[in-house]
TrEMBL record:
EC number per UniProt: 6.3.4.19
Family matches, as SUPFAM superfamilies: Adenine nucleotide alpha hydrolases-like, MesJ substrate recognition domain-like, PheT/TilS domain
Domain Lysidine-tRNA(Ile) synthetase C-terminal: 361-429
NCBIfam families (UniProt xref): lysidine_TilS_C (TIGR02433), lysidine_TilS_N (TIGR02432)
Name under which the protein is recorded: tRNA(Ile)-lysidine synthase
Principal subcellular localization: cytoplasm
Similarity field: Belongs to the tRNA(Ile)-lysidine synthase family.
Binding site for ATP: S27, G28, G29, L30, D31, S32
Keyword Nucleotide-binding annotated: yes
Organism of derivation: Pseudomonas mucidolens
Length: 439
C-alpha cells in the first residue's frame, strides 16, 4: 500500500524531530500551503517541535501586497504563528537570483541555533534545477541540484517534499479544500525557470512521461558522487591544513606543497571543497587563476581574485583574505593612558603582558622607511626585519606598531620585536577573525 503524504513527510523529518523549532517558509503558494497544512495537522496527533511560519514579502509586484493578509488568515485558521518579513531586493542582472538571495537572507536571520527551516520544493522543482544547471554548464556539485538538507545560519534548511510529485500536492490540496495564491510572475516566460516549466518540460514528458522522476533520480546519483568527491577532498586537504607559523593570524590557509603533488583534477576538487565555505566558486574559465597562483615563484606574492575575496600566496602557503580585509582606516591612536586591551577600529585589539611602558604611547601603521632598535643588533630597517620573520606581506600594513613619541618600540607578535629590552612587557595583537566581521 502506498504510504500517505503525511507518513512520507514524517519519515523524511524523523532526523529533525528533536530540533528546538520548525519554521515553515510560507509563500502562500500551493507547495508551501500543503506543507503548512500537513505539519499543522500532524502537530495535533504527533509530538513535533514548535511550529511557526515565515512569509517574505519582496515588494516586486502590486499583487503581492495582498499576500501577507492571505498568509495571516491561513495561519490563524491553523493556529500557527506567522512572521512577515519585508525585504529589499537589490537590482542586478538576474531578478530571480536577487529575490532568492534576499529571501534566504531573511530565512537565515530568523533561524536560531539548531532550528529547522522547512521549504516546499518538490520533485519537479528538483528536475528543473538539474536541467537549468546543466544548460549553464555546471559541474557535479551544481548538478547534484538541491540537497534534502543543508546548513542555514546556526540551523538547517530542510526540503522534505523533494520525492513528492506536483500531482500528489494538487490531490492533497483539493481533498482538503485548501486555498492558495497563484503568483502571476510564475507565467512570465522571460524567467528561465518558467520557460523550462511551461515550454520545455511539457514536451519532454509528452515524449518521456517519467522524465521528471528520472531527472530527479539523476540528481540523487550526482549528489552521491559529490559526496564521494567531498570525502576525497577532505583526504587531500588533511595534510594541507597543517597549522601555519602564525597562530595569531586566524585566517583560513593551506600549505601549498601537499596540494601541488596531486593531479590537476584532484587539486581543483580539493580547492573547490575548501573554497565553497568561503566564496562563490569561480567558473571553469577562471581556474587559470589557481594555476598562476600555484606556479608563481616563491617571492612573487601572487593573488587570485574571487567573488568574495582573494587568495594570496606567501612563501609556500596560500591564505584566504575576505573582501573586507582592507576595510580599516589605518589611523594613529593615542595610548598615553593605556587601556589594556586597546580596541583598534576594524583591526581587533592590542594588549600588554606585564607592566606597560611609561611615556607618550601611540599605535601607528606602516608608512615605509621605519627603523627600529633591536637589542644586540643596533638600528635595523623594519622592512628587513619583517622579511626575516616571514610575516605574510598582506598583513604587514595592518600590524599595529607601538611608538613612544617618535621611537618605534615594538611590533606585536613578531619574535624579537614584541618585547622590551628588559623583558618586563610584551605586546600582543589579536586581529579580527572572519567570524568577527571579516567574512
Amino acid at each position: 500500500m502506498k504510504p500517505s503524504l503525511a507518513a512520507k513527510l514524517l519519515q523524511v523529518l524523523s532526523p529533525w524531530r528533536n530540533a528546538p523549532a520548525w519554521h515553515i517558509a510560507f509563500s502562500g503558494g500551493l507547495d508551501s500551503s500543503v506543507l503548512l497544512h500537513l505539519l499543522a495537522t500532524l502537530a495535533r496527533i504527533e509530538t513535533l517541535p514548535p511550529l511557526s511560519a515565515v512569509h517574505v514579502h519582496h515588494g516586486l509586484q502590486t499583487a503581492a501586497d495582498a499576500w501577507p493578509d492571505h498568509c495571516q488568515s491561513v495561519c490563524d485558521s491553523l493556529g500557527v504563528p506567522l512572521r512577515i518579513v519585508r525585504v529589499q531586493v537589490q537590482p542586478g542582472a538576474s531578478l530571480e537570483r536577487a529575490a532568492r538571495d534576499a529571501r534566504y537572507r531573511a530565512f537565515a536571520d530568523g533561524t536560531g541555533a539548531g532550528e529547522i527551516l522547512l521549504t516546499g520544493q518538490h520533485r519537479d522543482d528538483q528536475a528543473e534545477t538539474l536541467l537549468f544547471r546543466l544548460l549553464r554548464g555546471a559541474g557535479v556539485r551544481g548538478l547534484a541540484a538541491m540537497p534534502g538538507a543543508r546548513p542555514l545560519a546556526a540551523g538547517y534548511l530542510v526540503r522534505p517534499l523533494l520525492d513528492v510529485s506536483p500531482a500528489e500536492l494538487q490531490a492533497y490540496a483539493h481533498d482538503h479544500r485548501l486555498a492558495w495564491i497563484e503568483d502571476p510572475s510564475n507565467a512570465d516566460l522571460r524567467f528561465s525557470r518558467n520557460y523550462l516549466r511551461h515550454q520545455v518540460f511539457p514536451r519532454l514528458t509528452e515524449r518521456w512521461p517519467q522524465a521528471a522522476t528520472r531527472l530527479a533520480r539523476t540528481a540523487e546519483h550526482l549528489s552521491e558522487a559529490q559526496g564521494l568527491l567531498d570525502e576525497l577532498a577532505n583526504i587531500d586537504l588533511h595534510i594541507a591544513r597543517q597549522p601555519s607559523g602564525f597562530p595569531w593570524l586566524a585566517l583560513p590557509s593551506l600549505a601549498l606543497e601537499p596540494l601541488s603533488g596531486l593531479s590537476e583534477a584532484r587539486q581543483r576538487n580539493a580547492m573547490r571543497h575548501w573554497l565553497s565555505a568561503l566564496t562563490r566558486l569561480p567558473d571553469s574559465e577562471h581556474w587559470a587563476g589557481w594555476v598562476s597562483l600555484r606556479d608563481a615563484k616563491p617571492d612573487a606574492q601572487p593573488l587570485w581574485s574571487l567573488a568574495d575575496g582573494q587568495l594570496q600566496r606567501c612563501a609556500e602557503r596560500i591564505w584566504w583574505l575576505p573582501a573586507t580585509w582592507s576595510d580599516f582606516s589605518g589611523a594613529s591612536l593615542d595610548w598615553s593612558h593605556p587601556q589594556n586591551p586597546l580596541q583598534l577600529p576594524c583591526n581587533g585589539h592590542v594588549y600588554f603582558k606585564g607592566q606597560a611602558p611609561k611615556g607618550a604611547l601611540s599605535i601607528r601603521y606602516r608608512q615605509g622607511g621605519e627603523v627600529m632598535a633591536v637589542p644586540g643588533r643596533g638600528r635595523r630597517d623594519l622592512k628587513r626585519l619583517l622579511n626575516e620573520s616571514g610575516v605574510p606581506g598582506f598583513v604587514r600594513g595592518r600590524l599595529p606598531l607601538l611608538y613612544r613619541d617618535q621611537q618605534l618600540l615594538a611590533v606585536p607578535n613578531v619574535p624579537g620585536l614584541a618585547t622590551s629590552a628588559q623583558g618586563d612587557w610584551e605586546l600582543h595583537w589579536m586581529p579580527l577573525t572572519c567570524d568577527q566581521g571579516l567574512s
